[in-house]
Write a structure and sequence with these properties.
The chain is an alpha/beta fold. It contains six helices and 14 strands.
């Protein structure tokens, strides 16, 4: 399998490009608008045909590259069924399979960070990896205090959905702020300080007490992302 991980330094966002092999159809997860030229360069140099661009949720800290990638490649833009983005071409439901030229991703509805958050499991028959968006981070979890986030739903999504995956399943989040690039379900069960050794009530109290500042680009990014990163026509 071909796998590439990209990083946007301004928003600390990870983007993932996957294909079964060079010269094949490909998909991309959580693209950032400013990094679209880099993605397209990789697609060209690896002789790929980009057919799907996926956002795990409506991001608040960067503008998505979905629209630009759609315009450049003709790819189908994908988000979860709960999204309010008007421009998304395909809305996936919990449990739905996306198949791209030998790759299989299963959509898992994992709300909590936002109410439209999805994770995507690679090869669900024998899970190899899961792209968790912001609901589960490496040694952390996504905030739950805006866009209809909910700490109880976050706990349920992590403990009762993601942690049901095999321990060896690799965890690829949409962000990291410490330089970590990958984790695993087993590691997060044991070492994630917001989850390990805590019960649901403790987690909910912790998340409600964080008192975090709003993302700097939130007022710009959310409206733009509801239009797939492109301004609406006047």
């Amino acid at each position: 399998m071909l796998f590439r991980q990209f990083f946007d330094p301004l928003s600390s966002t990870y983007t993932y490009l996957l294909a079964s092999a060079p010269g094949r159809e490909a998909l991309i997860v959580d693209p950032v608008k400013e990094q679209v030229p880099q993605y397209l360069q990789a697609v060209e140099q690896l002789d790929l045909h980009l057919v799907r661009a996926i956002d795990t949720h409506t991001h608040a800290d960067h503008i998505t590259g979905l629209g630009d990638l759609r315009d450049a490649s003709g790819c189908v833009t994908v988000m979860g069924a709960q999204t309010r983005a008007e421009c998304v071409s395909q809305r996936v439901c919990d449990g739905e399979l996306l198949e791209v030229d030998g790759l299989r991703l299963q959509a898992l509805y994992t709300p909590g960070h936002t109410d439209d958050s999805f994770s995507f499991v690679l090869d669900p028959g024998r899970p190899r990896a899961v792209f968790t968006g912001d609901v589960l981070l490496i040694r952390g979890t996504g905030r739950t205090d805006f866009q209809n986030g909910d700490p109880q739903r976050s706990w349920d999504s992590i403990v009762n959905r993601l942690f049901r995956l095999p321990d060896e399943t690799l965890v690829y989040p949409a962000h990291d702020y410490k330089g970590w690039t990958v984790s695993s379900i087993g590691e997060e069960k044991r070492y994630n300080p917001r989850i390990a050794g805590r019960g649901e009530a403790d987690y909910v109290a912790l998340m409600r007490g964080l008192k975090l500042a709003s993302p700097k680009l939130m007022d710009i990014a959310v409206p733009a992302n509801l239009a797939c990163g492109q301004p609406k026509a006047a």
